[in-house]
Design a protein that fits this description.
- The protein has 159 residues and is an alpha+beta fold.
- The protein folds into 2 domains: 4-79, Roll (Ubiquitin-like (UB roll)); 88-158, Orthogonal Bundle (DNA polymerase, domain 1).
- It contains 5 helices and 5 strands.
- The protein has helices spanning 25-32, 88-95, 105-118, 124-130, 142-158; strands at residues 4-10, 13-19, 51-54, 57-60, 73-75.
- β3 (51-54) and β4 (57-60) form a beta hairpin.
- α2 packs across α5.
- The chain is globular, with a radius of gyration of 16 Å.
- Bound molecules: FE2/S2 (inorganic) cluster (FES) (2 copies).
C-alpha cells in the first residue's frame, strides 16, 4: 500500500510522517518517530498503556489510525515534562512509590494530565474515573491514586 504524508503536531512540534493512513498511531509514534515512552500492551483498547492526548483528550493510540490525526495535536509522555522539569504528576508518582515495573506509568501520567488540563481541581472520584482505562498489574492502584491526588494538591498550592 502506498504511503501518504501525514502532518500533525507532536508534543508541540509540527511533524510530517510517511505512513499508511491505517497504521495505528502508537506504531507510528514508536517505530517511525522513535518515541518509545508510549507503551504497547494489549493493542485492543483494553489496557491504556498506549494512552496519548489527542487534541487534549486521553485516547488509546493503538486504536487510532494515524490518518485520523492529520492536523491535530498529539501529546505523548515525552511531552508532559516542560522546561526540563518533571510534571508534578511525575514527581508525585516517583515520590510515592507508585511506579513498579513502570509499564503502565506513561499511560497513567498522560491520562492524569488530560484530566488536570480539563479540571484543575479533580476530586478522588474524578481521578478514579479518569484512570479506570489504565490497567496496572503491579501497584494495585492505591499508591497510584494517592500520588495523583497529591499531585493535584501540589498543583493547587503552586497556583
Ligand atoms: S495497547 Fe492500547 S489499550 Fe492496550
Ligand atoms: S507498575 Fe507495573 S503495570 Fe503498573
Amino acid at each position: 500500500m502506498s504511503l501518504k504524508k501525514i502532518s500533525f503536531f507532536l508534543n508541540g512540534e509540527a511533524k510530517d510522517v510517511y505512513a499508511n493512513p491505517g497504521d495505528m498511531l502508537v506504531d507510528v509514534i514508536r517505530d517511525k518517530l522513535g518515541l518509545l515512552g508510549t507503551k504497547v500492551g494489549c493493542k485492543t483498547g483494553g489496557c491504556g498503556a498506549c494512552t496519548v492526548m489527542l487534541d487534549g483528550l486521553a485516547v488509546n493510540s493503538c486504536m487510532i489510525p494515524v490518518g485520523k490525526v492529520a492536523g491535530k495535536s498529539v501529546v505523548t509522555i515525552e511531552g508532559v515534562a516542560e522546561n526540563n522539569e518533571l510534571h508534578p504528576i511525575q514527581e508525585a508518582m516517583m515520590e510515592d512509590g507508585a511506579v513498579q515495573c513502570g509499564y503502565c506509568t506513561p499511560g497513567i501520567i498522560v491520562s492524569a494530565k488530560a484530566l488536570f488540563d480539563e479540571n484543575p481541581n479533580p476530586d478522588s472520584e474524578d481521578i478514579h474515573r479518569a484512570l479506570e482505562g489504565n490497567i496496572c498489574r503491579c501497584t494495585g492502584y492505591i499508591k497510584v491514586e494517592e500520588a495523583i491526588v497529591k499531585a493535584a494538591s501540589n498543583i493547587r498550592k503552586e497556583g
